[in-house]
Amino acid sequence: MLAAFGATPNAERVVIDGNVITGGGVTAGIDFALTIATEAFGTSAAEAIQLAIEYDLKPPFAAGSPATASPEVVAAVRASARTRQAERQAAVERAAARLRTEC
Q1: I need a labelling partner for 61 at 20 to 30 A (CA). Which of 6, 33, 73, 74 fits?
Q2: pTM beyond cutoff 0.90
Q3: Could you read off the pLDDT of 28-41 as tens digits, one per residue?
């Protein structure tokens, strides 16, 4: 849905594009914060923060991405989200249309 707004989708957890830094996913919020800390205060400070919060991610499953989850899990999640995704798509199309007429 990002393409509707001129953005290029990227599967990375944290992306730096010029002066914009974005993160995706719940635990990527911590990665995002550590990236900001690195940019603002340097790697040593970010590493100290990571140690202080004991952020040592070891998920119990490799199902955190469609690329690593089993096809059955991916299909089940997509099926359960189908209605919500259709609603989001409609909202995105309305918002993108408004932006095109306002710009």
Answers
A1: 33
A2: no
A3: 899 999 999 999 99
